[in-house]
């Protein structure tokens, strides 16, 4: 268990380390892009004239032969090379900063992500009494809303609100369906009834055909079954 105040200091230190890393990469970029002058190149061979003819000897035109010189591409403009290097380094700095930012965000979210999908912290547990109130509120919404389709949605949202008021946090990897099923399932309620009730809510959200009164009646029956289980609980 970490000492109080240590976590805030670690959170404050992480952005500072990211900033120092970006500054260091920027200094490397300036050093890599510095102008080091033009590189001297030598092209061709030195040509020497033949010796003059001796006295009394007729002059003959010498045979000249030259070797084919390899074609050397023109050197890159120093300014173009410098700009290219600087662009590469700037892109590298930006990529490194993004990686550091993502790593920092993952570090911040790690404690919540490591919790299991169905785990609830001890200090934020959902009690049996709170579950009874949540199911009763959901049943009232299911009975009073005129449209059967909207009534099923309102009932499920009532469960979500009741669990949220109790202080039970939802893991980032959980959907709202998994959130409600996990919290109520931790009270040893009928898993099949919970899954079927969640299925009705899923149909109300994504099925192109609206729910009908038979679906409302089925949802009421499932809520009553869950409430009766809680009544029997100690």
Write the layout of secondary structure elements.
Elements: H1 6-32, H2 78-113, H3 128-144, H4 148-165, H5 176-185, H6 191-206, H7 213-232
Helix pairs in contact: 1-2, 3-4, 3-7, 4-6, 4-7, 5-6, 6-7
Could you explain how this protein is built, in words?
The chain has 234 residues and is mostly helical. It has 2 domains: 63 residues; 111 residues, Four Helix Bundle (Hemerythrin (Met), subunit A), CATH 1.20.120. It has 7 helices and no strands. It is rod-shaped. The two termini are 33 Å apart. The N terminus is likely disordered.
Give a brief rundown of this model.
This protein is mainly alpha-helical.
Protein traits:
62% helix; 2 domains; mainly alpha; 234 residues; Four Helix Bundle (Hemerythrin (Met), subunit A)
């Amino acid at each position: 268990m970490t000492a109080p105040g240590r976590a805030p200091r670690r959170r404050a230190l992480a952005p500072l380390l990211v900033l120092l890393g970006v500054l260091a990469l920027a200094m490397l970029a300036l050093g890599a892009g510095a102008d080091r002058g033009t590189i001297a190149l030598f092209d061709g061979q030195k040509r020497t004239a033949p010796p003059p003819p001796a006295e009394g000897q007729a002059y003959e035109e010498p045979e000249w032969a030259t070797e084919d010189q390899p074609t050397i591409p023109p050197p890159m403009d120093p300014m173009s090379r410098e700009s290219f290097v600087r662009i590469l380094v700037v892109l590298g700095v930006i990529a490194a900063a993004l990686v550091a930012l993502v790593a920092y965000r993952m570090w911040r979210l790690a404690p919540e992500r490591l919790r299991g999908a169905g785990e609830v912290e001890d200090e934020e547990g959902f009690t049996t009494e709170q579950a009874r109130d949540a199911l009763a509120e959901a049943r009232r919404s299911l009975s009073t809303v005129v449209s059967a389709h909207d009534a099923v949605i309102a009932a499920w949202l009532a469960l979500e609100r009741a669990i949220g008021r109790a202080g039970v946090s939802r893991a980032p990897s959980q959907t709202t369906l998994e959130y409600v099923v996990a919290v109520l399932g931790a009270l040893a309620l009928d898993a099949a009834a919970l899954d079927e009730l969640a299925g009705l809510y899923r149909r109300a959200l994504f099925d192109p055909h609206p729910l009908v009164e038979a679906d409302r009646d089925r949802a009421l029956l499932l809520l009553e079954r869950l409430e009766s289980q809680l009544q029997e609980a100690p």
